[in-house]
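Course assignment 3, question 2. Fill in each field.
Student: A.L.
Task: Predict the tertiary structure for the chain below.
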Amino acid sequence: MQLINHMRLEFDARPENESFARIAVSAFTVPFNPTLDVLSDIRTAISEAVTNAIVHAYQERGGTIALDAGLREDGRLLLSVRDWGCGIADIRRAMEPFFTTQPEKERSGMGFAVMQSFMDAIRVESEVNAGTTVYMEKQLRLQEDAPREPEAALN
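Answer field:
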């Protein structure tokens, strides 16, 4: 299915840029009329993905995060958050609720579980020492709810 809109951003893996990512995705999504609940779900999932990159992939030492957002004709929002950090050795284990690599920092280990609960689909690809990409999808509207071309005004 073809994309009707797309954006790509790269930004520094700094804690203050987590809110930037949330705002950017919100600004991209709002013109497509999501409900407030759906918008909140998307913002939360993006926050978790970006925070994971900052805290785990780069261990708060900085790096680059790439954020892509695309909207398909059928109203499906496609998101990806990519880093070039340390990577994840065991994705299945990392996605288990309460698993954390940093228990000493009081991390809950719920990042992926939160993303899964707020998005319709999530997929993670990772390679040790090469980085991680989190792909997420959310249905914003049904095809029949998509805006239509305005009809010509009657004379």
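Instructor remarks: The chain has a mean pLDDT of 84. The CA atoms of residues 13 and 54 lie 5 Å apart.
Grade: pending
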